[in-house]
Amino acid sequence: MDTLAASLLDGLLIGLLYGVAAMGLTLIFGVMDVINLAHGAIMALGMFGVYLLFSEMGMNPYVALIAVLILGLLFGVIMYFVAVDRVIDESPLASLLSTFSVNMIIIGIGTAIWTTSTYNVEYSLGTVETGPFTVTGARLMAAFLAVVITALLYLFLNKTRPGKYIRAVSDNRGAADLMGIPSHRILALAFGIGTAIAAVAGGMIATIFPITILGGSTYELKSFVIVVLGGLGNPLGALIGGLILGAIEGIVPVFMKTTWVPVIEFGLFVGILLFRPTGLMGTKK
Amino acid sequence: MMDFLKRTVGLWIPLLVVAGIAAYPLITGSDSNREAMFSILLAIALASSLNILLGYTGYVSFGHIVFFGIGGYAGLYVMTVLGWNIWFAVLLGATVAGLIAYLLGSAILRLRGGYFALATIGVNEAMRALTGNIDALGGPIGMDVNFSLYKPFGGPGGMLQFVFWSVVALTVLVIIISFVVKKSKFGLGLQAIREDEDAAEDMGVVAPRAKTWAYVLSAIIPGALGVLFFFKNGHIEPGEAFRLALSIEMIVWVMLGGIGTVLGPVVGAGLYQETRKLLLTNAYLKNIQLAVAGALLLAIVLFVPAGIVGWLRSRNARLRKVLE
Fold first, then answer.
1. Nearest by CB to B118, which of A106, A108, A273?
2. Cα A101 from Cα A90, distance rounded (Å)
3. Which end of chain B has less Cβ packing within 10 Å, N or C?
């Protein structure tokens, strides 16, 4: 029982992190119907951003996350205007491919610089122990930050003017244009925010796990599952989807071999796409 | 006779290209050329298969490599465990891939746009994880081809010859299928679905059935190719059989050459493979070949979305008559 509880707790904490990893993907999809296939590569950039700022410049990794956030936002806005803006009104294939080519460029350059070897951010927040539970400080911190980021995004989308513009453009771009909202600039902002969150999620992963330049792809696949669980285009749903995924990863290994986890995850993923394409919560855009 | 040639000229051009690729190692008599041409032909056949669904019907199958892997696993299982010969194994690989496409298609082809693309990724990943857990298929280690299976061909050398010519035959077959489908009423229905599925249904196209058959058609040749490829490879494992990166490359081949054309996948796959080889052997570009390929792809998607053949067709009315 104790093993199960400890394993579940571990899973839920990581699940919150998964949720943030998926949040950028779902935000971008919700606003502009683009599945960003550079999502994993951007997460990898975030991982290496934190690694470099910490190891080369001695910056505290949690301060480095703020730098990664800003750089991620910039990168996203530039990426939007270079690779996405031209194909935004074309078939889904065009944006899938244009974002995938950005993925290739990032991975290509990243591999040339860092090869595919493993790096570690050697920074510890110690461990916390209560009863049967032993949790590293880094995991608690990541889970806490995940909740903070979700809350900030929620406030931004609902309480600020640019946030409301984003929701307006997401609901009906034509009408938003007519109301005088500069829709392409708002799309760029939304893309930038989605990218920034992905980069920060990557940075948070770097504080817990070893990283490689290809490391983002695992989380990208998990993000697809989460995004579908929580409802495509629903950033809050992503956090819940992440928790579900984390719970599965916590519970399943207690009863079966770990290798069954992805079978269950992707089986669930396809099943939900087929029977509840709006996600478990069933919110309709 | 002239009339027939004129009507089918769009078929003869890609077939001539394939014949040229197949003859090249014969003429040069070089084994390394044969292996280079093998990878190009494999790419052409995979791209042309995908094009039936992606190009004609407009459904973006991101995990299409799943059928290659399924075929490979089915074929190697019956050969190594049950002792079937390669001919039946190839037939079985194609049949199993087609059957699974039929069952799967009836379900996931209801999804449109990005949802369908995501579902195909999910199916591929689920299959990869699942095969890694099935002990009869060797679990995560996979299965090996016993060298004694190469004996009927007079050893590995003869086997390589056999696999090469089988892939040539399958490439020819898939190009003929592509052409016939494109010119048929069935193909017209698919293209109507691509342009506007709801309107197509109003005009009497039974979309669910047509889409499912397009999916099946695009799955059987990859299934057969999977058997041949992994038989030649001597080994199959989940990560190699269901490699998502290869799946995405298939889309790149189709896009580069010209989506929805018969010649396009041939040109795109051939050009991409050759360019990559060039990049890989260049001292300066070797390390960033992936980035260069990505930049090329981005340029094509942004500026020449119709691909090479599509661009040529749009530039010149005479070319439009001969290039399909």
1. A273
2. 16
3. N
Helical segments of chain A, H only: 2-32, 39-55, 61-79, 92-114, 137-159, 161-171, 173-178, 183-206, 216-230, 235-255, 260-275
Q: Judged by CB atoms within 8 Å, which residues 13-72 of B form the interface with A?
A: 54, 58, 60, 62
Which amino acid is residue A28, in one-letter code? I
User: Shortest CB distance from B114 goes to which of A33, A83, A221?
Assistant: A33
CB contact under 8 A, B122 and A225: yes
Q: How many CA atoms does the CB half-sphere of B119 hold within 13 Å? A: 23
> Domain segments of chain A: what residues?
2-114+134-275
ipTM over 0.95: no
CB contact (8 A) between residue A105 and residue B301: no
**Domain ranges within chain B, ordered by starting residue:** 2-322
Query: Using a CB-CB distance cutoff of 8 angstroms, which residues of chain B are in contact with residue A232?
Result: 114-115
pLDDT tens digits, B231-257: 999 999 999 999 988 988 899 899 889
Q: What pTM value is reported for the model?
A: 0.89
How many Å lie between the alpha carbon of A194 and the closest alpha carbon of chain B?
18
A with B: how many residue pairs have Cβ under 8 Å apart?
130
Instruction: Tokens for B189, please give them.
Output: 């229905």
Instruction: Please tell me the distance in Å from B175's CA to the nearest CA on chain A.
Output: 23
Sequence-distant (6+) residues with CB within 8 A of B253 are: B43, B44, B46, B47, B265, B268, B269, B272
Contact B291 A98 (CB under 8 A): no
Query: Which amino acid, B236?
Result: I
At the second CATH level, the architecture of A2-114+134-275 is: Orthogonal Bundle (1.10)
User: How do residues A10-44 score in pLDDT, each as one tens digit?
Assistant: 899 999 999 999 999 999 998 998 999 999 999 99
Torsion over CA: B71, B39, B240, B219 (sign): negative
B117–A contact, CB cutoff 8 A? yes
Q: Indicate the SS3 state at residue B211.
A: helix
Pick the CATH number of B2-322 from 1.10.3470, 1.10.10, 1.20.1250, 3.10.20: 1.10.3470
DSSP A90: S
